[in-house]
Amino acid sequence: GGLEFQSQIEIISRAHHKHVASLVGVCIDGDKRLLVYEYADNNSLAFYLHGSEVATMDWATRMRIAIGAANGLAYLHDDFSCGQQRMKRLWKEYIPKIG
Questions:
Q1: pTM for the full model?
Q2: Which end of the chain is more exposed for a tag (fewer CB within 10 A), N or C?
Q3: Are 88 and 97 in contact (CB under 8 A)?
Q4: Which residues are in the Protein kinase domain (predicted)?
Q5: What is the DSSP letter of 39?
Q6: Closest of 45, 44, 24 to residue 35, by C-alpha
Q7: CA of 36: how far to CAs of 2, 24, 55, in Å?
């Protein structure tokens, strides 16, 4: 519901890590919700992974990006200690959820 969404936004807005895009704004209009994150220039990761031969990344760069993404996820799901953080059991796997 709405209160759970607002609670999650408060938690996400306090997350600051070099491998996590910062939340800079939120817009709620009825049932529509929009999250605004900091601008990341230089096109998308998909473009550099699968784009033209000029833009395609070498494997060392891909590994650095993958490790950075993993560090960001670890921060959000392990290191970001907050009293409201919890785990929910869905299907047969545990899927972390901030909330």
A1: 0.56
A2: N
A3: yes
A4: 1-99
A5: -
A6: 24
A7: 18, 6, 27
